[in-house]
Design brief:
about 110 residues; mainly beta; 2 domains; nine-stranded antiparallel β-sheet; elongated
């Protein structure tokens, strides 16, 4: 991922660290500091993260329900988790890649 500071330097635009960018709703979507660390965020309309990546190669993806609650998550370390929720948003079932399972999956209830 090309750093914003590199682009600004190429264009001859003065800047200072840290570089921060916010979207129109005021949510931070980019951060870069003078140690060459950077982080990029993709957010939904409610400001919840749907994707994150940083200059260390770490990333996370989220899928969320209409209320912003996570229903699926995975990251670059191979960890994943998923949630099933009832009509009120309460967790019916949770499982993750470490073998943790809580509740009863919907497929079992049918």
């Amino acid at each position: 991922m090309k750093k914003l500071s590199e682009t600004l330097t190429e264009l001859g635009i003065a800047f200072t660290f840290p570089i921060r960018i916010w979207d129109a709703k005021g949510y931070q979507t980019y951060y870069e500091d003078s140690t060459d660390y950077l982080a990029k965020y993709e957010l939904d309309d409610n400001g919840y993260a749907t994707y994150f990546e940083d200059s260390d190669g770490y990333w996370e993806k989220y899928e969320r329900d209409d209320n912003g609650r996570p229903i699926y998550h995975e990251d670059s370390n191979g960890f994943w988790s998923r949630w099933e929720r009832d009509a009120d948003g309460n967790m019916d079932y949770y499982e993750d890649s470490t073998g943790v399972k809580k509740g009863t999956p919907k497929s079992t209830n049918q």
